[in-house]
User: Which sequence fits this backbone?
């Protein structure tokens, strides 16, 4: 019998835009539990589906279920499964979706004994020490102010080889690290500020300790910092610590176009940063302002110039369908992409705007009727048009009078890289499995259908 069985629900193939990522947030909780002498077992359903057998064989006292909005229904079903096996099991649900839709979840899923809002490292130990009948149904966990005291994620509970990711433009695999929590910005499409509107960072000393640990234990030489925001100050401190210890590592991180500066980028590159990601979102300033992004499109142009100057790689992200979007404003974004198509190293296919709990977009969607009056995050939501567009419909698409399903379809495959021979060759070279081949064939089929229907 184990004390705690932790389960990370899977995403569907259609929902997953990238290869499965190690669930570092849950593994931090696991590490904290192990530090307090609890026996912990871990299932990541991305690779292991036979959860029922594990629960029956390991007979855990507690089943802790994580996850996000995209896999919430699988999380709910896991709680039901655990209770069907033994009513004595304490079921605990936490994570982003739990925090942002706690009321809806508790009212709709009685099989969840305890729901945790916020950061779970400390309260998980309290839960593990408390009999089920004495636990309240809702725990509002306080923020952890000093992240340095937390142990490193319990990566040893999973097969690390499965999570070594293919780093763009590198011939070696990498792993993720989280160096901070929270975001002070309030973009209308994102829930990061609602979760934690104050950014708290680990010290550079702690971060580089973990980098060295990963290099020594897992034999990787590349890292992706998986933070909502890497500030210039934090990037500078980490870069200086890497240089002072002479650590040889290649790394990627996400920065804001309005905060980063050329001198910081130069220092980052010297410390091994080879690639930065920037959320440009739209090339129309009015759309950016309505999205509360807080940047100017010229900030993005400036970053493009700087990375060219110092030979640093750059990835840009865009969203289509932001509040106020029209065919004309979306075209401006694609014109911007066309203009920089051969300059920027990678431009991700612009993603349609989805509605997530806790975001400004959710409030607008409830007001404009995108979400029906009886909408519940805990009840299945089916919309044929969304399913045809996305391949799934568990998350609502943001619809507005000026930009609906038809407009999303028109622009889904409009990105110029799909017309580029270089892009096609690159995607063919990236094939690693039969699933990759099927995915590319499916995308090609969709592209041909789009061309026939909309590109005339």
Assistant:
């Amino acid at each position: 019998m184990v004390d705690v069985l932790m389960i990370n629900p899977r995403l569907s193939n259609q929902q997953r835009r990238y290869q499965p990522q190690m669930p570092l947030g849950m593994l931090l909780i696991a590490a904290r539990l192990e530090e307090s002498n609890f026996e912990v077992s871990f299932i990541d359903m991305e690779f292991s589906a036979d959860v029922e057998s594990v629960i029956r064989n390991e007979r855990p006292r507690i089943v802790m279920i994580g996850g996000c909005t995209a896999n919430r229904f699988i999380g709910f079903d896991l709680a039901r499964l655990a209770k069907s096996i033994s009513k004595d099991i304490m079921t605990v649900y936490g994570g982003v979706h739990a925090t942002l839709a706690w009321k809806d979840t508790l009212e709709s899923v009685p099989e969840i004994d305890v729901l945790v809002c916020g950061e779970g490292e400390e309260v998980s130990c309290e839960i593990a020490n408390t009999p089920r009948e004495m636990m309240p149904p809702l725990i509002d966990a306080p923020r952890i102010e000093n992240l340095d005291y937390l142990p490193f994620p319990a990566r040893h509970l999973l097969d690390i080889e499965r999570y070594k990711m293919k780093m763009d433009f590198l011939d070696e695999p990498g792993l993720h690290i989280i160096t901070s929590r929270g975001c002070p910005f309030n973009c209308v499409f994102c829930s990061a500020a609602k979760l934690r509107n104050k950014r708290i960072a680990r010290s550079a000393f702690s971060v580089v300790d973990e980098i060295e640990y990963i290099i020594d234990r897992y034999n990787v030489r590349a890292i992706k910092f998986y933070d909502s925001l890497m500030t210039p100050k934090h990037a500078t401190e980490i870069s200086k610590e890497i240089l002072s210890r002479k650590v040889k590592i290649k790394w990627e991180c996400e920065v804001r176009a309005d905060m980063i500066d050329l001198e910081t980028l130069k220092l980052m590159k010297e410390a091994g940063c080879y690639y930065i990601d920037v959320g440009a979102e739209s090339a129309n300033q009015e759309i950016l302002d309505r999205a509360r992004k807080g940047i100017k499109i010229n900030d993005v142009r400036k970053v493009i110039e700087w990375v060219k100057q110092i030979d640093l790689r750059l990835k840009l992200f865009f969203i289509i369908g932001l509040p106020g979007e029209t065919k004309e404003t979306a075209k401006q974004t694609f014109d911007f992409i066309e203009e920089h198509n051969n300059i920027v190293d990678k431009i991700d296919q612009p993603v349609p705007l989805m509605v997530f709990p806790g975001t400004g977009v959710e409030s607008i969607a409830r007001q404009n009727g995108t979400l029906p009056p009886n909408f519940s995050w805990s009840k299945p939501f089916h919309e044929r048009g969304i399913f045809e567009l996305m391949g799934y419909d568990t998350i609502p698409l943001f619809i507005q009078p000026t930009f609906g399903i038809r407009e999303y379809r028109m622009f889904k495959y409009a990105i110029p890289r799909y017309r580029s021979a270089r892009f096609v060759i690159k995607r063919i070279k990236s094939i690693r499995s039969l699933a990759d081949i099927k995915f590319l064939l499916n995308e090609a089929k969709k592209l041909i259908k789009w061309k026939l229907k909309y590109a005339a």
